[in-house]
Structure formats: structure tokens, C-alpha cells
Design a protein that fits this description.
GO terms for molecular function: acetate-CoA ligase activity. Keywords: Acetylation, ATP-binding, Ligase, Magnesium, Metal-binding, Nucleotide-binding. It is an enzyme of class 6 (ligase). The chain is α/β, with parallel strands linked by helices and 655 residues long. It has 21 helices and 30 strands. Bound molecules: 5'-O-[(S)-butoxy(hydroxy)phosphoryl]adenosine. 5'-O-[(S)-butoxy(hydroxy)phosphoryl]adenosine binds next to helix 13, strand 20, strand 24 and strand 25. The site of 5'-O-[(S)-butoxy(hydroxy)phosphoryl]adenosine has 22 residues, from helix 13, strand 20, strand 24 and strand 25.
Length: 655
């Protein structure tokens, strides 16, 4: 409540300083407006020019956009390129000795590698994959800690035209198994362990659990990077191979395989409102173009920058702004293995000071948790290298925005609040920081060529101040191409009939102010945003119902100070409704259960038990009521259509 209210009344405006504006890639509102006008007057001409100038093509494209099989759009379809070549090789003539990656491990050890060294490592690993017969179009699942090797593995796949699917290291064996099966992966790349916040994270044993779960006969090899203290790992002879053995003796040169612009670069699974996770499939050229453009536009990339995106490579943010974007523009970037609060809440600031980070990109949930641990901690560090700050993942509350702006940015760094999604591949709504004045809590305006709008149920634009559905009215190069194995679901999820299958429906509600600034209000579907991570309520419900004790479950979100939203589950057991100690015990068990079914991030923060759930006479669970119950709000809705109104009382009791 408070978040949305304060956003609605926010009136502060922060234009870039003269110094920032004068030096910016896109300098001043006129420059921004000119780009937008170019896109509006000649859409294909605009994107064609961007693609020609920013991507090195092996074979130039002659056609920009093909809409004949909408919504399965094709961009630059007769062009050929290689994404890894664009991220590494093309920089070597001038930047071979420039640092590509500054890697800092959990305990603070720093490893620096140049573009030349990155080239060698990527080529060696690519040659390893090639020698086992992995070729263009094959799928490789990557289940890795944050590391140089995770990026090497992604780039090596791109180099030979294989399609990677990175699975976040916090997902359970079950979730990993499901993704391996859906992608029919031939290889899984992992590490024996990860290290986060001083704790070991067992990765290889989770991979084994996934593969032992059945259905993964497609996997021929598991490549295991030796990260942590243990010298050995659970091992299957013939299938498992250490990373260092896998690359031993492999040549440090590997010709990049030319692929078609529309060849899938990767699949990344994300939660939807119903059913199993969606395999979001991205293209090679269009995706790469989005990554490059937004590095220059939103992050105002300069060759002297030290760029740091704190996201894990298991999420889209870590794909676009760790795995591809920074490399594609030849940047030096920091990659961090650990967590913001270890060994203390000054970790981020200490790293910014030590590595002289100039562009820093993180999530509101991290900012909020660091404020809570000590609002003055940043003062203890020299943050003068910073010139630009970014946020992503959820709406940022104006208080957190102001803290970030003043305490971290010293009042001199523009804040780029970037709205986008796994499906959009790169930023959609975000300030060009040398042009667009920012407002705390708003992701500001669409980037050039992004035809975003807010419409009502019938597809008509809503007036300023009114809420509506966020849509993108024209296809754009970096958008999702389809859902892996499920083109029907792709159409249904994103291109609804109500909008003649033409508008891309993002799934967020938003409104615009008098200046046309976008303010994101939240999801319109049954998707939760927990610490900037997307979770489907249905997914958590299915996990709960799969437990032998559970008869029925409904999951809703509830506002949470740090996480944005927390997970509240309403559960009906097969046995009698538990109370007291017994209820506590069952809750602990069910939390663990969800952790092992999906992953720790999906564990319900709260579970309430009832003899039943509030349902309509036709048997539909009334989630709106449950949301009110979870928030502890008085029920003002009409409950006369409820089959069992008395049940609400029960559910309102907390443990
Ligand atoms: C959903 C997408 C894109 C990377 C991170 C999440 C929410 C994302 C913002 C923002 C308000 C935001 C939306 C969106 N979201 N960025 N700057 N302001 N909301 O990717 O898991 O695909 O989730 O995250 O609800 O639909 P994702």
C-alpha cells in the first residue's frame, strides 16, 4: 500500500548534471527525441541501421523485419554472425590486453583476465564441447556458481552455435531435472560446489539428484569445475569429467561457427502464471543488438568504465549484463561470487572502492536490505569512482531511491531504473541518463524504437493517471521468439486475442503521469515478485499439493519490507487442521519440501491452515479474499457468493 501511495504522490525530478549530460553518449532531450522520431518515422530503417552499426556480421542481412508469421517475428533473417565473435574476437586487434573480467570470490580473492585470456579459455572449452560432438543447435545446461567459468561456458556455447540454458544455482534438483528434460540437454556444466556468504553450496550433488530422478537419458556428460575445498565430488564414471581434464590439451583457438541471425542463442526458464516454467527462447542477432544498444544507451558505456552488474548469471539480468552486454562493447566488468552482506554490509561499497567501479547495477531488494543493516555504511568508503547507478527487478520505493542517490551516488550519479523482463531480453523503459530527467520510483520513458503504451481491456490507450496494461505495440529485435517446445503457449501468453494478437502483453499494470513517465504498479497475473525474482503461485501450489499431507493449497503474495513480496500459503491438510506445536512442525516440513521441490527462494514465509479454502459456488478459489486475509485487511468485498463464508475466520487466525 504505502509503496504505491508514495509513488503516486512523488513529484521530485532529477535532471542529469551538466557535466554528465555534456559527456553522455545521448546528450540532452533533443538527442533522445530525435532517435525516437527516427524510429517512429522509419521503424525498419532505424533498427536496420542499429544492427549494421553495432554488430559485426559474417554475412550482412538484406531484410530487417519479417512479420509474415506473426507473432513469430524474424529480424535480420538472412544475416549471419557469431555472438561470441562479437563479444571477444572483434576486440582483439585493439583490446587484447584490456581487462575483460575482474572476478572477486566470496572470500575476496581477485582474479583478472584480459580479452586475450578470455578468448583462449572460451576457445579451449568450445573445442572440448566440439570434440564430444556438440554442434549447432544442441542444448547445454549450465548450473554454475558466479565465476569466470560460467561466462566461459556461455560464450563457448555461443561460439559453436550450441544453445545454452543456464539454471540458477539456487534451484532444486527437481527444478533442474525438469529443465534438463524440457531442453533435452546433451551436456550439463556445473561445479563441485559454490561458495556464498562463507557457506558451501553443493551443486554437483544436486545435479546428480536431478539426473537420478529419471528422464535425463539425453545427458551424455557432466562437466565439473573444481571450485571449492573438497577434492572430490559424487562421481559417475564415464559420464562425469572435471573441467580441467575436459580442456586439457585442447587448442586455444576455435573458429567461431557462423549462425543465422534467428538461431536460438539460449533458452532461459522463467515462471508463468500457470503450469510449468516457460522456456523463453532468445535469438542471436536481435538479442545481441538489445544488449549492445542498452549498454550504450542506458548505461552510457564509455571505454574507461568499470562496469558491475550484481545479478547472477542464472537470471536474464546476468545473461544480458554479465554474460553478453559488457563483453559485446569491450567493457571491463566486475563479477562477484558472493552476497552483499558478507562478511558485512559494506561488501558492495568496498568492492566499488577497490575496483574503481563507475557504473553499478543492482536490485531494489539488495538496496533495501543494506539500508536496514546500516544506512550510513556507504560513508565509510570512497565511492567517488561511481558516475551512474542502475536498478532492476521491481519498482523501487522512493525512499530507497533517494538513499541510493544520495548515500551511494553522492547526489551526482543519475539513477537508471530499468524496466524489462526475461522475455524482452534487454531494457525497454529506462532513462537515457544524459537526457531524461529521473523521478524516484519511475522507470521513466521508453528507449528509442520501443513502442510501449498503457491500454485498457479493449486495447485503447488510457489517459494519464489511469492504470492499465503495459503493452509493446510493435515487435522489437531483442524480444522472446517463442517458448521452447510450446509455440501455442507463447501466442496465448503474450499476444492475446483481445489485442488482435498484435500487442505484446507484458503482464504488468502501470500508469503514466502528465509528462508521459511510466510508473509500474505490479503484475496482473498470478506471478509473485520475491526479491526481484519471478515465482508463479501455481508452481508453489503444485509443489505443496504434491506433499502427501496436503489436500489443497492456495498461494498469494503479501507486501514485504525487504523482499518486495513474501509468499503466503493457505493449506488444507488431508488430516485434521493442525494447531500449536504440531502446526509449527508441519510448517517447517512444508517449507523444506517446497525448498527441495522448487528451490529455497520459493519457500512460503507463512503458512495458514484451514478446513477448507474460500470458494465460489462453482468451486473457484477466491484469491482476492486470500490476499486481503494475508495482509490482515478487513474483508470489505462481497462474500455472499462464497460457498463457505465461515472459513475466512479460520484463515484469519495466525499461528
Ligand atoms: C518482471 C520481470 C528484467 C530483469 C529482472 C526480472 C518486474 C522488472 C522492474 C522495474 C518495476 C520491474 C516486472 C516485470 N520488474 N524490472 N524496473 N520496475 N518492475 O526479470 O524475472 O523476467 O521479471 O519484473 O513485474 O514484469 P523477470
Amino acid at each position: 500500500m504505502s509503496g504505491i501511495d508514495s509513488i503516486l504522490t512523488e513529484t521530485r525530478v532529477f535532471p542529469p548534471s551538466d557535466e554528465f549530460r555534456i559527456n553522455a553518449n545521448i546528450s540532452g532531450m533533443d538527442a533522445y527525441n530525435t532517435l525516437c522520431e527516427q524510429a517512429a518515422s522509419d521503424y525498419e530503417g532505424f533498427w536496420g541501421k542499429q544492427a549494421k552499426e553495432n554488430i559485426t556480421w559474417f554475412k550482412p542481412f538484406t531484410k530487417v523485419l519479417n512479420e509474415s508469421n506473426a507473432p513469430f517475428y524474424k529480424w535480420f533473417e538472412d544475416g549471419e554472425l557469431n555472438v561470441s565473435y562479437n563479444c571477444i574476437d572483434r576486440h582483439l586487434p585493439l583490446l587484447a590486453n584490456k581487462l575483460a573480467i575482474i572476478f572477486e570470490s566470496d572470500n575476496g580473492t581477485v582474479t583478472r583476465i584480459t580479452y586475450m585470456e578470455l578468448y583462449r579459455r572460451v576457445c579451449q572449452f568450445a573445442n572440448g564441447l566440439k570434440s564430444m560432438g556438440i554442434t549447432r543447435g544442441d542444448r547445454v545446461v549450465i548450473y554454475m556458481p558466479m565465476s569466470i567459468e560460467a561466462v566461459v561456458a556461455m560464450q563457448a556455447c555461443a561460439r559453436i552455435g550450441a544453445i545454452h540454458s543456464v539454471v540458477f544455482g539456487g534451484f532444486s534438483g527437481k527444478s533442474l531435472q525438469e529443465r534438463i528434460i524440457d531442453a533435452k540437454a546433451r551436456v550439463v556444466v556445473t561445479a563441485n560446489e559454490g561458495v556464498r556468504g562463507g557457506k558451501l553450496v553443493p551443486l554437483k550433488s544436486v545435479v546428480d539428484e536431478a539426473l537420478d530422478g529419471g528422464g535425463c537419458e539425453c545427458v551424455e556428460r557432466v562437466i565439473v569445475f573444481k571450485r571449492a575445498v573438497h577434492e572430490d565430488a559424487p562421481w559417475t564414471i564415464g559420464r562425469d569429467v572435471w573441467w580441467h581434464d575436459f580442456i586439457k590439451g585442447k587448442p586455444e583457438h576455435c573458429e567461431p561457427t557462423p549462425v543465422n541471425a534467428e538461431d536460438p542463442l539460449f533458452i532461459l526458464y522463467t515462471s508463468g502464471s500457470t503450469g510449468k516454467p516457460k522456456g523463453v527462447q532468445h535469438s542471436s542477432a536481435g538479442y545481441l543488438l538489445g544488449a549492445i544498444n542498452t549498454m550504450r544507451w542506458t548505461f552510457d558505456y564509455k571505454p574507461s568504465d568499470i562496469f558491475w552488474c550484481t545479478a547472477d548469471v542464472g537470471w536474464i539480468t546476468g545473461h544480458t549484463y554479465v554474460g553478453y552486454g559488457p563483453l559485446a562493447v569491450g567493457a571491463t566488468q566486475v563479477i562477484f561470487e558472493g552476497v552483499p552482506t558478507y562478511p558485512d554490509a559494506g561488501r558492495f561499497w568496498k568492492m566499488i572502492e577497490q575496483h574503481r567501479v563507475s557504473v553499478f547495477y543492482t536490485a531494489p531488494t539488495a538496496i533495501r536490505s543494506l539500508i536496514k543493516l546500516g544506512a550510513d555504511i556507504p560513508e565509510q568508503y570512497d565511492l567517488s569512482s561511481l558516475r551512474l547507478l542502475g536498478t532492476v527487478g521491481e519498482p523501487i520505493n522512493p525512499e530507497a531511491w533517494m538513499w541510493y542517490y544520495e548515500k551511494v551516488g553522492g547526489g551526482r550519479c543519475p539513477i537508471a531504473d530499468t524496466w524489462w523482463q526475461t522475455e524482452t531480453g534487454s531494457h525497454m523503459l529506462a532513462p537515457m541518463p544524459g537526457a531524461v530527467p529521473t523521478k524516484p520510483g519511475s522507470c521513466t520513458l521508453p528507449l528509442p524504437g520501443i513502442m510501449a503504451d498503457i491500454v485498457d481491456e479493449a486495447g485503447f490507450p488510457v489517459e494519464a493517471g489511469k492504470g492499465g496494461f503495459l503493452v509493446i505495440k510493435r515487435p522489437f529485435p531483442s524480444q522472446v521468439r517463442t517458448l521452447w517446445n510450446d509455440p501455442e503457449r507463447f501466442k496465448k501468453s503474450y499476444f492475446p486475442e483481445e489485442y488482435n494478437n498484435k500487442y505484446y502483453l507484458a503482464g504488468d499494470s502501470a500508469h503514466r503521469d502528465e509528462q508521459g513517465y511510466f510508473w509500474i504498479m505490479g503484475r496482473i497475473d498470478d506471478v509473485l515478485n520475491v526479491s526481484g525474482h519471478r515465482l508463479g503461485t501455481m508452481e508453489i501450489e503444485s509443489a505443496l499439493v504434491a506433499n502427501p499431507l496436503v489436500a489443497e493449497a492456495a498461494v498469494v503474495g503479501k507486501p514485504h519490507e525487504i523482499k518486495g513480496e513474501s509468499v503466503v500459503a493457505f493449506v488444507v491438510l488431508k488430516g485434521p487442521r493442525p494447531s500449536g506445536e504440531e502446526a509449527k512442525k508441519i510448517t517447517a516440513n512444508l517449507r523444506e519440501w517446497v525448498g527441495s521441490e522448487i528451490g529455497a527462494l520459493a519457500k512460503p514465509d507463512e503458512i495458514r491452515y484451514g478446513d477448507n479454502l474460500p470458494k465460489t459456488r462453482s468451486g473457484k478459489i477466491m484469491r482476492r479474499l486470500l490476499r486481503a486475509v494475508a495482509k490482515g485487511e478487513e474483508i470489505t468485498q462481497d462474500i455472499s457468493t462464497l460457498e463457505n463464508p465461515t472459513i475466512l475466520k479460520q484463515l484469519q487466525e495466525t499461528l
